[in-house]
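Quick illustration for those who missed Monday's session on complexes.
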Amino acid sequence: MVSSFQRYIINKTATYIVLWFLAAFLNFLLPRIMPGDPIGRYLETLYNMGQGTTGGIVQVVPEAEKLRQQVIEQFGLDKPPYTQFFLWLINFLRGDWGYSLAFPNLPPVIDLVKQYLPPTLMLLIPSLVISWVVGNYLGAYMALKGGKVDKIGLSSMQFISLIPAYWLIIVLVFIFGVYYKILPVSGKPGYMIPSLSFDYIKALLYHWILPMTTITLIGIGGWSIGMRAYVIYQLNANYMKYSKALGLPQRVLGRYAFRNAIIPQFIAFAMSFGGLFAGNLLVEMVYGYPGMGSLLSMILGRLDIFGMQAIFTFTATMILVANYVADIMYGFLDPRIRRGITEVVE
Amino acid sequence: MARDIVSKAQDLRLYYILPNNIYVKAVDGVNIEIPRGGFLGLVGESGSGKTTLAEGLLYLIDPPMIKISGKIFYIRKREGSSTEYETIDLETLPQHRLDQLRGVELSLIPQYAMDALNPTMKIGSFIKDVARYHGRDVDEILNRALERFKLLGLPSDILNRYPHELSGGMRQRTVVGISTLLNPKFLVADEPVSNLDVVQQHIVIDFLTELVEKKIVETLLMVTHDLHLILEKSRYLLLMYGGHIVETGSKEEVWSEPLHPYTKMFLESIPPVGSRIEEKRIRGIPGNPPDLRYPPPGCRFHPRCPFAMDICRRKEPPEIEVRPGRKVKCWLFVDRKV
Amino acid sequence: MGEPILSINNLTKTYALGLARRRYVKALDNISFKINKGEFVSLVGESGSGKTTLARIILRLTPPSSGEVIYKGKNVWSLSDEELRWYRKEVQGVFQDPYTSFNPFYKVDRALSVAVKKFLPGEDEHVVIRKVLESVRLNPDEVLGRYPHQLSGGQLQRIAIARALIPRPELLIADEYISMVDMSTRVDIVNLSRDLVDQYKMTIIMITHEMNMALYATDKMIVLFKGRIVEYGDTKKILKDPLHPYTQLMIEALPRIDKNIERKILQKTLDAQKKGLTESVRGCRFAYRCPFATERCFNEDPVLEEIDKDHYVACWLHNRR
Ligand SMILES: Nc1ncnc2c1ncn2[C@@H]1O[C@H](COP(=O)(O)OP(=O)(O)OP(=O)(O)O)[C@@H](O)[C@H]1O
Ligand SMILES: Nc1ncnc2c1ncn2[C@@H]1O[C@H](COP(=O)(O)OP(=O)(O)OP(=O)(O)O)[C@@H](O)[C@H]1O
Ligand code: SF4
Ligand SMILES: [Mg+2]
Ligand SMILES: [Mg+2]
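Prediction with adenosine-5'-triphosphate bound:
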């Protein structure tokens, strides 16, 4: 007798594995269907940076051919397609993600990720946690207070979450960077290569505050609006009316509403985790923050197919993992969902 | 006087406000005195305002329900006195005092009983909260709950179950148990047996009757469509039609001599036990219930009334007190009195 | 008679409770019966006897633990996608709890118009909706445009019925669909159901606690007790001569206005309840409440047997085997 709880987990697991294969396959196709000439673009880059041969594009052609040959060999492009796919998959799982064409020295993509991911996580995890906690608290507070507090709170949260991020950035930059001149406006930590040196970390922190504030504020807006809606929905539920008819005080009703409303927010929290790994393109770019967003923008800008392939697969994997965790959590948090789980098959 | 009445509404108008600012006049000018003690019945057509009135008597008035006019009183024995009664205007009572009364002295078995329990809370945890916030001994109340749930025929592991693990009728009985747990003096039961089979109906009704007979619950006002039940058990009846109370009186009086034309038709619509459709097709009351957004002028029953006279179409009939406690709201009885 | 429209074969459903300490509830215990096209069938039985569970299994909302549901020759639990669409149109349900059967964020109109769009494409939505609402004795002008919580219990319940009638189903499963309306409206709805069966050959399974209404209008009756069928057959025969003591109890317990009627079986039930007697685990599940129970009843399971044409009962008082 398989309990349906186990069946549920098996089902979910199977679904996510299939989804992952699908994502990996699409990413595998990517370089094969991309328009443009990525390798040509790479050589152009070399040339523009003055590191290429001085003779101009024409003289580069033989080198391009050589590079092409290398690439074909490395990715087994001469083998049958399915072998290519599995070869690629195995390499990906082993951490061999190919070389990035976005940088002149062709660094391994995995090394780039190792460099750029920590600053991104350092930026996004705290902001996700803070905005989640503060947002939920504010949202619940607005819903429970009602009246003026709710009206004013809701409109300001809507304002924050609806104004385009760059607006907020301009305002923050103006206040702290231009007016008070206490924080840097833009630029990487001194064009330094990310490392573990003390100077670098200090510079990073210095550059961290503004993007962090921006992302957190936007997040608070979104979370609080969601939470407010969930709490209001709970407050209108029949069980709330009944609890009130039995004389349970307002604060207990508030607790019930909060507890039932936070369930979907937990799930959403777990799901947003996956997104962290993609970085925040806009904010990182504007502030010149050296995270995954910036890395991605470079890679996209230079048509670095191998970088894209690897990073897309990587973020897709993380997003799927996060959703998978969220799905399983759902079953545990809500007994009504568990209902499906607790049914038995003899 | 006060000792004979447990609850009173004067010129009560409870409307619902629809998003387009139109009112649904669910309770529209009701004057009633609910006699103290025993089993009372409130009956009437679906949509006639019974639930609204019932909630109003406990002052459970929240938007979109609004009170347009009127007063609602609860009358109880003054604390520490055996003879004196006090009349409490529920509107002027501060919220925390109202909370202290609810569930303890005034209680409701809501019509939405099947949907009345917090879906993520076990029955036991909810009962603990109810006991705790009314300052009762939690274990004592839990034990009492178990005992009463047993009388109601619920399984012994009920405290450990989530609401969705119970059938519809089991949820309804659970709510009956919870609403009576703190031994309220005045209990309003809105369709407490609507999802129970006839046997379970007896079990629940006997349970409630016993509480009443033992004076644990002093007054039980039951709203129900199971007319037989009310006719079998109750001592006093209130009939509602289109937002008005149209007739009141003791059960015997109403049953043997219904006055209002609606009451007559209503009682005739009870299908006799054991009749078959091929032999005799029973018919409901012809015509449609009034649209409470735009109730008809005059008597609200006139479009369906076989006795309607000219005046019925123009003027709202007054309430005629035929005898003390026996009232009817119909033009047919105006002359009789004078 | 021909092929039955619905056959239930050896259906069993067990629920498990609790994540850590598992307990089991057997909601349905090896149930079998057949229903012909154009029959009005009532399913009655004690609260918690598995009626809703059965309805949910037929409607494909809860999977059975074992056994099968055959609709027009097809196993309902292994339909192809296309057959499923067909099934969802032909078989409609009205759910026991009208408060949770509607999406609270949408006006009730939406549920109705979605049904028209989906099942009756090309028909005038407005006309269809008004007609069906009037047939369940609602005033369309009054109820349309409202959210579910803005309606009384009985109004909401009738909207659920209206929604289920829109696709003009072949088979309608109505779980306590008249529990929240007044007696006069109950009669109207049951009469309407009878007409749908007689005129359109609709098949209706009415789950109800209103024994009186079931006896009044239905062709066949299934009596369930603790997950088992105890009596099943022609309603008229059951009305005239109820065989199982539980069926007798249900009829005896019908409220009557004359006060002093004797209710022997009921008294026994009430006493058992007060003494806290729990159900028999072996033998006939009704034994501990049955005034006629013998030694054998407590030890051996009675089986459902055809006592008379179209009249089955599972009780040692009648079983010949
Ligand atoms: N929240 C609401 N908003 C608007 N109208 C409402 C609301 N609740 C109820 N109504 C309307 O008020 C009228 C009275 O409703 P109420 O629930 O009091 O009726 P009832 O007599 O209890 O009916 P039933 O027997 O069907 O439960 C109905 O016409 C109903 O449509
Ligand atoms: N999701 C569930 N999890 C666990 N047990 C359940 C679940 N649903 C129903 N049950 C149990 O199964 C049994 C049958 O329930 P079901 O809802 O089918 O009864 P019913 O005949 O419809 O009763 P009622 O007339 O009270 O609605 C009950 O004992 C109930 O507690
Ligand atoms: S007042 Fe007129 S219309 Fe109304 S019930 Fe009496 S006789 Fe009929
Ligand atoms: Mg009601
Ligand atoms: Mg049910």
